[in-house]
Specification:
The protein is elongated and about 90 Å long. The protein is mainly alpha-helical. Helix content is 55%, strand content 0%. The termini are far apart. Pathway: Energy metabolism; oxidative phosphorylation. It holds the Pfam family COX6A. GO terms for molecular function: enzyme regulator activity; oxidoreductase activity.
């Protein structure tokens, strides 16, 4: 059975083949002059060789992360969204079996109003939802 290291090497080789010379050379031929000599500032030294190695490594690493993003993150997001949807539906199914809002007990710590809100009738918050929230001034103690 192949080890993870061998699989990684094979994926790196296939990524290199995708960036093959025929595709690159077609584009480069159009952008380069007919002169094939290197610029005067290109020198073969340790720094430039290391920069080339870093560039090569970055290309293969970015390919790996792109594949991980597509084939690992996307399915996880879809599964998470499906789970949230099912929990949401289960929550509202539970609410359907509860007593109507008007019949529920309103405790003194709920809907405390020290002063009226500056909008509407002054009794409802900005995030008031009539399907979930209920406040009867006469019931509150």
């Amino acid at each position: 059975m192949s080890s993870p290291r061998n699989i990684l090497r094979l994926s790196q080789r296939s990524a290199q083949q995708l960036r093959a010379a025929p595709v690159r050379s077609t584009i480069q031929r159009r952008l380069n002059s007919t002169d094939a000599k290197l610029p005067s500032w290109v020198v073969d030294n340790a720094f430039n060789r290391e920069r080339a190695n870093v560039k090569h490594h970055a290309a293969s690493t970015s390919s790996l992360w792109k594949k991980l993003s597509i084939f690992a993150v996307t399915p996880c997001l879809i599964l998470g969204a499906a789970n949230a949807y099912y929990l949401w539906e289960e929550h509202w199914e539970h609410w359907a079996h509860m007593a109507p809002l008007e019949e529920r007990t309103e405790y003194p710590y709920q809907n405390i109003r020290v002063k009226n809100f500056p909008w509407g009738d002054g009794d409802k918050t900005i995030f008031w939802n009539s399907e979930v929230n209920y406040h009867n001034k006469d019931k509150a103690t």
